[in-house]
Design a protein that fits this description.
Elements: H1 2-7, E1 8-10, E2 31-33, E3 55-57, H2 70-73, E4 79-81, E5 101-103, E6 111-112, E7 125-127, E8 135-136, E9 149-151, E10 170-172, E11 193-195, H3 217-220, H4 228-237, H5 239-242, H6 250-262, E12 267-269, H7 285-311, H8 318-346, H9 355-360, H10 362-399, H11 405-424, H12 451-479, H13 485-488, H14 491-520, H15 527-537, H16 540-552, H17 554-590, H18 599-604, H19 616-619, E13 628-631, H20 640-648, E14 657-660, H21 664-675
Parallel strand pairs: 1-2, 2-3, 3-4, 4-5, 5-7, 6-8, 7-9, 9-10, 10-11, 11-12
Antiparallel strand pairs: 13-14
Helix pairs in contact: 7-8, 7-16, 7-17, 8-10, 8-11, 8-16, 10-11, 10-12, 10-14, 12-14, 14-15, 14-16, 16-17
Keywords: Receptor
Organism: Sphaerodactylus townsendi
Protein name: Leucine-rich repeat-containing G-protein coupled receptor 6
Amino acid sequence: MLLSLHRLRDLNYNELVEFPVAIRTLSQLQELGFHNNNIKAIPEKAFAGNPLLQIMTLTRAGIHLLPGGMCQQLPSLRVLELSHNQIEELPSFHRCQKLEEIGLQHNQIHEIRADTFWQLTALRSIDLSWNSIRTIHPEAFVTLPSLIKLDLTDNQLVTLPSSGLSALTHLKLKGNPALSESFPKENFPKMRVLEVPYAYQCCAYGACGNFFKASSQWDSEDVSPEDEDGHKRSSGQFPSHADNHYDLDMEDFQLEMEDSKLRPNTQCTPSPGPFKPCDHLFESWVIRLGVWLIMLVSILCNGLVMVVVFASPGYLSPVKFVIGSIAGTNLLTGMYCAILAFVDTITFGHFAKYGARWETGAGCQVTGFLSVFASEASILLLTLAAIQCSLSVSCMKTYGKVPSFGTVKAGAMCCLTLSSVAAALPLFSVGEYGTSPLCLPYALPDGKPSMLGFMVGLVLVNTLCFLIITGTYIGLYCNLLKGEFDSVWDCAMIKHVAWLIFINCLLYCPVAFLTFSSMLSLFLITPEVIKSVLLVVLPLPACLNPLLYLLFNPHFRDDLRLLRQKSQTQESCVQSYVSDDTEKSSYDSTQALVPFSDTDHVFEAPDIFRMPSRCPPVLDAYNFPSVTLIPCQQKAGTRRHNSDFSTHLSCLADNELLIDSESKDAARNSLQTTLFPTSPAPAFTSHL
């Protein structure tokens, strides 16, 4: 009985703050359980008297530091469990030559050095999950020929050294978002169970959905039926060790190796699929051509609508302003489709090589922001257009006037602001853009549960907007009597907004339906169908909205005609101005010196410099003054005030004339005051 106590020592749940020194006196101790204590540190010589210790469990013991010479004192140690502590730095386990399994999960380890597991030839399993490991030395696993299991789940790895890992059969790398590199099958020839951060990394293993299993297979395969009773007994005595799910029986590993020969397929998770493609972003040519068509029509037609609405000299009504703003948001949707089409083109045939970097990069974040902003802004602006039409009709009938243009602009600015806030939420961990290469924050078949709230919020807001729009237009048509459209408001724009409402609401119905059915799992909808709806049906209103305006709204034809007339008028006026300016320059060069004998002829001379009357709208903007010829010669003996006038005007010569920029009336009055005082005017002599 005494020997049994020496072999099994249970110090769990004792709230110890210091490591018991008396343990070193138990020379026959083989198993030690030290669970849920708060010792923080282990003394250097804590295990000096325990050379036979084989299994040691120090979980949740508050350990921050391990003694450097621990393995020298424990030459027989086979299993070491140090999970759920605060260990930041690991010593070298070089002297633990018999160590087979080590559990270091849920600590604060930052680095694995080259000598951490140096020459542990018997080591078969390492659990380093849920730490903060950033770097692993390239030679950290080189001297581990027996290593078959490695768990690095939820760390901060950027790269994983493959040297020394050729014997691995189980590898866990989930939860390392920066680890986007590929894992060639040639580097892991014996791999059976592989868990990677991204589904694209499974494409190299010919992944198929039928061969994938849950992560529980990592542990379930390790327990053979004949050892189940022994495992339960051990679990009852050492609950902390049972959490590791490590089996020490060599027969179990032999069974694993034999089983692996019978089933050579690698079970890799997460599995690729329509939203995680291996070869093409757009796996169907129908989808590819549809996206390209939507992109071209959206960009060209919405750009034309914006130019015609905002550049036309015609009257810009408030509702037309809102229609132009909707065209701007639809243009952004076309840009979203263009970005996806570009990514599909440059990664054609080998998308898995770039898929992880695209999802996690800034490009996908910008693309998703554009998509959500454009979609929400379009729906909110359409709501504003419906409300504006209804209020305008009501105010016109009641007060004889419509709401001010500034009110409509303020409403449009509020719509854009709300859309920006909604699109920015996934950038602050409310939803996520990087769940798929489509960069949409929608709950996908294999998406994260955190996406559910954001997606439901978007769908509910959009549904509320469509209900408001529908109620507003029903009230509008009920309040207006038959034939009142033309006398009260613009019938064409009201009908156009009604068509926009109908088309947008009709196309949003399948999106909302698939969203709610996927969330509630009411029935099976294939991922291919969901992907087609998100790529083709969701951006389709951005393509149809401008076509409705270009083809069926008479305002487009009127504004386009006015825009053409304005362009032609400006072109002809510019040509006339150039021609007249050339003529004027020629006249100035040949008629700089002009003789005259009659003052009235002087005031009539500038008429030849006036611009043609066919371009008054253009030239009036320049406010060209009339031109007057002013004589500057005066005879000797003129009075003093005449001399002052002569010095004020910088005359060219005795018989030359100046081109004054003052108007004809001002020049005439000035000349009459200066040249013709009460005394007789001096006589002028013409020198020809």
